[in-house]
TrEMBL record:
Protein name as it appears in the record: Sarcosine oxidase subunit beta
Principal localisation: cytoplasm
PROSITE patterns in alphabetical order: RHODANESE_3
A cellular component term, taken from the record's GO annotations: cytoplasm
Organism, as annotated: Microbaculum marinisediminis
Higher taxonomy: Bacteria, Pseudomonadati, Pseudomonadota, Alphaproteobacteria, Hyphomicrobiales
Amino acid sequence: MAEYSVFSLIANALTGNRSWKPAWRAATPKPRYDVIIVGGGGHGLATAYYLAKEHGITDVAVLEKGYVGGGNVGRNTTIVRSNYLLPANSHFYEWSMKLWEGLSHDLNYNVMFSQRGVLNLAHSPAQMDAYARRGNAMRLAGIDAELMTREDVARFVPDLDVSPDARFPVHGGLLQPRGGTARHDAVAWGFARGADRRGVDIIENCEVIGFLRDGTGRITGVETTRGEIGAGKVGVAVAGSTSQVLSLAGIQHLPIESHVLQAFVSEPLKPLLDTVVTFGAGHLYISQSDKGGLVFGGDIDGYNSYAQRGNLPIVEDVASLLLTMFPSYGRLRLLRSWGGIMDMSMDGSPIITTGPLPGMYLNSGWCYGGFKATPASGWCFAWTIARDAPHDLNAAFTLDRFHSGAVIDERGAGPVPWHH
């Protein structure tokens, strides 16, 4: 990482930080590209990076209506895991985990990936049975998993209330030791820099306001606030704004809903929580950032919205769950909160596919899981765009599954997006 070596830090500190080279160029849109990616979030930037790296397609533009890192990639709780039950999800997210494990080296940019473990708490014998089943499925798929007793959990997370008279008594848990966290905005910056260095144009403050078509109806480019741009292929990776963007192409009905998901950070503390804990019975997930703040979240706001801010009932709900599981955190002060827009699919699993129109490719439906999927999502979407066909890892993540009934319903929750 010579570009950000200690010598560079010292030299720039002594000269007013005026000599840093921009991590990516402020590109001017060209009249035409081989590929346009709509959406400069983590998934869009990763797609552009892997198009250039894996497929040699460098005539690519990433169009972002705001600034890089301003969307969901900078509005999440940074958790990375691959602890899924169903084969379609477990293989895909495990590939993402493997990409995470080499991502800083691959990008030559420190994304601060920390494999501190992800622990799912169990609160009943039935939940322990379900975790044993999921853990066995994970191991059969080559994914690490450890079933923990109540005593194991108490030693692993000393601050957790595991007393028998707790409101939600802990029976044990399922640990994925290779899970953890990553610095979310560094992921966006690393992919942006990596794509830029391979020739990709990253164009910020460039909102797509329409799609161009030829006489056959094929998508041939986009209309933007900075003019029309032609393209051989157009990929859409805009997360919670998918319905709005695709409506510009005349597509009014998709199997997704947009909801706000809030996240919270406490004041900085000395190290006290060195893993990720999830409390599924009440829906809470918490870790401690490298800066010391506790980062935590819970359920989505239960109404459709495109706003990046939530309401107080969820704040109260998440805070009460936090204090239920960690009573000793009761005197902490909340430092800040934010909201991201979730594109909740009807079965809780993503969509990475060709279509739904000729010349168009769709990446959407990430629900709560978008951040951890960032590398594999970009890798598989790049493959799909480059080869006009899905890779085996995303072959099941089609739009057609909602017509055929071959849904990938990890929790068996049915077509209720906020239950996933």
